[in-house]
Amino acid sequence: MDERIQAGEMIRLLRKTDGMSQADLAEGICTQAEISRIERNITVPSADTLFRISERLGVDLNFFFEVKKTSKLNYIEETFSLLRKFIEDKNYKEAALILDAERQNPLMRKPPYWQFFQWHEGLVEFYVNNNFHKAVSLLEKALKIYEPDIHLTETQLQILISLGNIYGERRMFDEAFSCYEKCRSGYQKLTRIQNYQIQIRLLYNMALTLNNADKIQEAAEVCQEGITLCRESRSFYLFGEFYYQYSYSSRCLGRTHMAIEYLKKAITIFEITGNETSKAFAEKEIQDIITETENV
Asked: Which of 29, 152, 172, 240 is a good FRET partner for 285, with 20 to 30 A between their CA atoms?
């Protein structure tokens, strides 16, 4: 695949990211038909035309010559998917390396991508650099970078969950629950849902934070809601973690037998999903409860 193909693909991707039509891009530069041919790699643009196109798209002309010989159409999606995986695995340092590598990518300056980028920069600031104030600032700014609708987008909802988690870890529980409630309200207003894991993630983090805030009964109720949602959606995502948190709530409420039963359910799910680390924690927790009971 040669550089002309890459230039055409990148022009189309940058144009669509900016919400431009071919006519918008062509205005004062060339005809719409010529833009169409350029994007389909039928026509090689002149140096002057390419320069003017790059100016309108907000990128340096050299970007089209430096682009690597791989398709970029799915590049951003793949990069963001890898970022999410590292974050969910709590591998924040690897996420930081990706952010550093992509910081100069002109695509990242487009509002929806920059919003995603800033969201993860905020997480790295908190979990790697231990900078609470900068992390909160980045997340709050990220919320406002891209607001295409009167209702919150799925990305904005996820940013609110992250913001709530950070407040929760600093034991600023009122602020945390405020973020979670905004997220819950926003989720209910979505007319089309693409990522059904958002609600599961919201409920899990609510339960975790409620337990940490010693609101044990409320945490247990949210765990029940989360477990029901996992069952109904036939999802293993955070299913075992809900049972683990439910066990903690039950133990705090003096329901030792139920706590052990929920841990056993969690262990079964962790075995199925191959989560050996969480399985080991749950098994140790059962032993701790048994030892504690025997010593009473």
From this structure: 172
